[in-house]
Structures are given as C-alpha cells and as structure tokens.
Specification:
2 copies of one chain form a homodimer. Chain A is built from 7 helices and 9 strands; from the N terminus they run H-H-E-H-E-H-E-E-H-E-H-E-E-H-E-E. The first copy, chain A, is an alpha/beta fold.
C-alpha cells in the first residue's frame, strides 16, 4: 500500500516534479515575514524565498531531503534573513498556533493520497498561520484531455479507489514495483478542500511540467486564514 | 573532544539527572499557552506540562529521545491540549521569531560546555519567545564545599580549560572512556549569561539530586523577554 513511507525513500535527485512558486505569492506576502514551506523536500522553494529576504522554515518528513537542505543552508547566508529546516509531518506540524505569516505548499498536495489526510494538512496549515495569514498552494489538476493520464486515472481507479489517484511504478505500468501514488485534483475538489478552512483570494490556471516530460493542468491558489 | 555528539548517543534510560520543574513556573505561566521545552530529552517535563493544560513543543537533538517522546505522545491525549516533538538544535531553533509564550530549559545548560554556545542558546530562546515571554531555566551550581566535586573541577580543569566543566567517563575516573562533559555554573556566570538577553524575575537556590546519588547546588530562574 502506498503511503508516506514510499515518499520517504526518495532521495534528493529523485523528487518528482518541478513546479515553480507563482508570482502571486510575492504580491500577497512581503519579504521579512515568516514563511513555512510545507513539504519542502531539499529546499528549492525555501532557498528561493530565503534569497528574496523571507524568513523560512522548511518542513518535510523525508529525513534525507532535510539533511541535504540543512547542508545547503550552511553554505549560504543572506543578511538579516533566516532559513531553518526540520523533519516533521504536515498533518501534525511541530509549531504553536499563530506562528507564521504565510505557508506555501508547492506541488505538495499531489503526494497526499488519503482524503482525510488532505483535510488534516489544511487544518494544520490554518492552525499555525497567524490571523489573516496567507496560504499559497499549487496542485496538479486532472487531465482528461490527455489520453495517457485518462488511461491512468481509469485504469488505476479499481486499485486506488479514488478517481485521479494513480500509481507510479518502476516499470511505468501496473506490473512493476509501486514507487508512490499521486493524486490529481478536480477544481471542485480542491476548492472545497481549501474553502473548508480558508478564504480564497486568487485562483490561477496553469500548466506544470513533470520530470518525465509530461505536462499537466495545474492550479495556483492564494488563500487567507 | 566532547561535544553534542556525545549527548546524542544517550538513550532514554541513561539521560543523566532528574531535576523537577520548579513551582515558580506555574506562577508565571498560565495553562493554555504555548511552551517550548528546550532539550526535552524523552519528554518528562513536556508531558508534565501537557497534562496540566499547556500546549507543548519539545525539542532535542537526540533523535532516539524524540522517537521515544513521539511514541509516548501517541499513547496519551489531553482534551484541548497539544504536544509535539521535533529533532533540532537549541542553538538554531527551527521556529520563527515571537512564537512561544514561554520556554523552559530544565537542567539543559549543564550539557552546554562551549561558552559561546551558551550565549547562542539564550539568544535563540529569546528570539522565539513573544514579547514579555517567560523563560524558566534551572541549572547546576558549582559545589566547592563538596570534596568530590572540588576534586573534579580542579582535576579536570587542565583538560576542559574551564573551571566547573568536568568529564564523566565510563570508569568514573579520567582513565576511562569519556561519555560526556558537564558544566556547573557559578551564580555570577549564570546571572550574566541570562541578563545579556532577559530580565530576571525570580532566582531560587535549591539542591538537585543526580542519578549517581550525589547532590548538587541548583538554581531555578524565571526571566522575561
């Protein structure tokens, strides 16, 4: 069964998907504030924010990724800015209530294949944000006009039991060893999930590239506590 | 050379010294607030606070201790209270500025044998506390009236290069394998250290027991950001 233990195994270089942080983030969140990067992996987005003058805490449950991130954090220093990394779980954040001005989840929700955990992850982000704090979230949308994805969604549904959740294997078909599962969201699904906790301020439609050369529909959302 | 790597090795049961949290803490810090337990080990003090209705984050660089603490946290649940544990270093806390209402360091400073690191640890506690936040700190005092300690301080000084810092070995003399180093504070030393950052509100003198059956002078301090 796929769960976070599969994600735990990924090393630095194998982290799937490269999704940039949307420009909207910078319109809503000003440098000098405290930003939590949820599911930061080896810190690509964390370091980008740090270099722009934000105080960043990156969190990921993958200990290897955090090890890399900490190593890199020692190498660079931005005057007046802080960057920290910590191992931890997005559904049980090790921070007090009302700690951060903003939180980002860049292509993180794609990894959460249990619906109840998605709710919990958003509740936790809400809890650690200050009043009126900003959530920036980008997620993969479902791609029904792409035959390859359509086949995956429909073919894997009998196993994953959720439409949009599919299995990535080492042989790129269901006969191989399962590496991890992914979930692509419908717009309604994601809206409902976020609106349970937050007020949506901005919703953008985009296209993300995946490491295998595919493209996918994507959503970039800014929301407020 | 002794450093945090030696402390890292200690498992749950071997953590030296049992020092209770002083009652003064409860006079100054009210339940329902967010408390950071710095150097929490397996969480003895963290759980005590949690059971009394505080929201607690415990931090320690010893991964084994945190593993035990997290395991125990899953077993108990106090209505409306939160307890979280995280691996991290007291001289580089993975929290934003102004996050906690209070921080405790119970018999933690005894483990910090580098003077510059003591300063950094207090600076970090200061940083993560909210304005007017409370620091509770207990520390071992030097024991010059105790022949055993006097011998240690004087005998180990040529090696440790700091009076009050001594070496604990597996054979209980300097011929054995070094397990860890400890530092016992003079009152002046500790006062200066704390006053660099904080306003001292309360200073109590007490006696602590050590696991080996010794007793030691102790200080219990409440200070304010």
């Amino acid at each position: 069964m796929s769960d976070i233990n599969n994600w735990r195994k990924f090393s630095n270089k194998k982290t799937p998907a490269i999704v940039p942080l949307g420009k909207k983030f910078y319109e809503y969140v000003k440098p000098g504030t405290n930003v939590l990067d949820i599911g930061c992996a080896f810190g690509r987005v964390s370091f980008e924010l740090y270099k722009k003058g934000y105080n960043v805490v990156g969190i990921d449950f993958n200990e290897n990724e955090i090890k890399y991130a900490k190593r890199d954090a020692k190498k660079i220093s931005v005057l007046g800015s802080k960057i920290k990394f910590v191992v931890g779980n997005a559904n049980d954040l090790p921070f007090p209530d009302n700690s951060f001005d903003a939180a980002v989840m860049v292509a993180f929700m794609v990894t959460i294949v249990k619906p109840e955990e998605r709710i919990q992850v958003l509740k936790e982000a809400y809890r650690v944000l200050k009043d009126k704090g900003t959530l920036y979230l980008s997620a993969f949308g479902q791609n029904w006009d792409n035959e390859k994805y359509k086949k995956r969604y429909e073919g894997h549904f009998p196993i994953t039991k959720e439409m949009g959740t599919f299995i990535v294997t080492d042989t790129h078909d269901l006969g191989g060893k399962e590496l991890y599962r992914c979930h692509h969201y419908t717009e309604d699904e994601l809206r409902t999930l976020i609106q349970n906790e937050f007020n949506i301020l901005s919703w953008e439609y985009t296209t993300f590239k995946t490491p295998s050369g595919n493209t996918s529909n994507g959503f970039m959302i800014v929301a407020q506590k």
